[in-house]
TrEMBL record:
PROSITE patterns: ADH_ZINC (PS00059)
Pfam families found in the cross-reference section: ADH_N, ADH_zinc_N
Protein name: Glutathione-dependent formaldehyde dehydrogenase
Family membership noted in the UniProt record: Belongs to the zinc-containing alcohol dehydrogenase family.
Alphabetical keyword list: Metal-binding, Oxidoreductase, Zinc
Gene3D superfamilies named in the record: Medium-chain alcohol dehydrogenases, catalytic domain, NAD(P)-binding Rossmann-like Domain
Length: 394
């Protein structure tokens, strides 16, 4: 089959790789119909190279048709249309039964000290082949697969795999009071959905992003948008009586654009030998922290900062004096996808499309064009906000 493979820093290629096979009685094989490029994929593309091996199959936002199931699989059958959550969880362990599927004790990558295994996401999370491919093996298929209807297009369902529940969890963790104010930093795909979810749940949403196309997309959904910089921060303060918003979702994470020091650290780590690079990632502060520090500064006293953007530095400095003095609640974590899907499935199937999931994809390209698609997404050229790859498209 054809699959998108990691070959080195900023180097990916579509290669012929062996078809996945059933390995355990609980496995299923999925024929992929849509698979998206996520902002987290850019971390592999840019900075997490020390944890990658040439030929690793990428991708963790996928859906398709069940082709084959193992002997113990009863919840799905060949021919079912399904979405594949990016976290691999069993559904029955102590963590899963408490809604912490991203910490699944059955699939935890204990040798790396990490939580549940993820599709297509490096040795840190199990080095499981990902879904940017024609076919995908899904462990724990009875619990892991989300069965969906036949009538709506893939774009209505695809984001249940990752970014929609990630955004939903981010807003839930933000704990916005009824009728309160929510600021969203970063209007990439997760930020776009977090802002819309905030509006759907009744909050006044104010968002900051440096890219005009992203601001325009959010504005279409009733979000008050501001350019990045001191003027935008001041405008949000003015709009919240000088106190700051009740909650802030940081949807930026460790992206290094605009931070020369963090960018240089990312460049260095990405070029170090694997063992050395891993050690640096595990002991050093290599994150761009501007968005996080802005969030902590902007939120009102007694407010909440929710991190949806991914951070990777193990020793990143934090302004604890300010956080303590302002009595800030800080929440974060890998998304517990299956904890939220029962809430989200009715919303994506609602004919009114209340979360605007059909207004997110800006580029749908053949799987064969994955390499230029990654570059396009990273550089934000051509108004690119979200890319979906189609294995059947030529």
């Amino acid at each position: 089959m054809r699959a998108v493979t990691w070959q080195g820093k900023r180097t990916i290629s579509v290669e012929e790789v062996p078809d996945p096979q059933l390995q355990e009685p609980g496995d299923a094989i999925i024929r992929i119909t849509s698979t998206a490029i996520c902002g987290s994929d850019l971390h592999l593309y840019e900075v997490l190279g020390p944890y990658m091996s040439a030929g690793d199959v990428l991708g963790h936002e996928s859906m398709g048709i069940v082709e084959e199931v193992g002997a113990d699989v009863t919840a799905v059958r060949p021919g079912d249309r399904v979405v594949v959550p990016f976290t691999i969880s069993c559904g029955w362990c102590w963590m899963c039964t408490r809604g912490l599927q991203s910490q699944c004790e059955t699939t935890q990558v204990t040798e790396q000290g990490s939580g549940a295994s993820l599709f297509g996401f490096s040795k840190l999370y199990g080095q499981i082949p990902g879904g940017q491919a024609e076919y995908l093996r899904v462990p724990h298929a009875d619990y892991g697969l989300i069965t969906v209807g036949r009538d709506l297009p893939d774009d209505r369902y695809l984001f249940l795999s990752d970014i929609l529940p990630t955004a939903w969890q981010g807003v839930q963790y933000a704990d916005v009071p009824d009728g309160g104010t929510l600021a969203v930093l970063g209007l990439g795909p997760v930020g776009q959905l977090a802002a819309r979810i905030g509006r759907h749940l009744g909050a006044r949403v104010l968002a900051i992003d440096p890219v005009a196309e992203r601001r325009a997309m959010a504005a279409r959904h009733g979000v008050e948008v501001f350019d990045q910089g001191d003027d935008g921060i001041a405008a949000i303060r003015d709009a919240t009586d000088g106190r700051g918003p009740d909650a802030v979702v940081d949807a930026v994470g460790m992206e290094a654009h605009g931070s020369p020091v963090a960018s240089a650290a990312h460049q260095l780590v990405g070029h170090l030998p694997d063992a050395v690079g891993q050690k640096v990632m595990e002991t050093a502060g290599v994150d761009r922290l501007a968005a996080l520090h802005t969030s902590l500064d902007l939120v009102r006293r007694g407010g909440t900062v929710s991190l949806s953007g991914v951070y990777g530095g193990a020793a990143s400095p934090m302004p604890l004096l300010t956080m303590f003095d302002k009595q800030i609640q800080l929440r974060m974590g890998q998304c517990n996808v299956r904890h939220w899907t029962d809430d989200l499935l009715p919303l994506v199937e609602d004919p009114r499309d209340p979360l605007g999931v059909t207004d997110l994809v800006t580029h749908r390209l053949p799987l064969a064009e994955a390499a230029p698609a990654y570059s396009l997404f990273q550089k934000k050229h051509d108004g690119c906000i979200k890319v979906v790859l189609d294995p059947a498209q030529s």
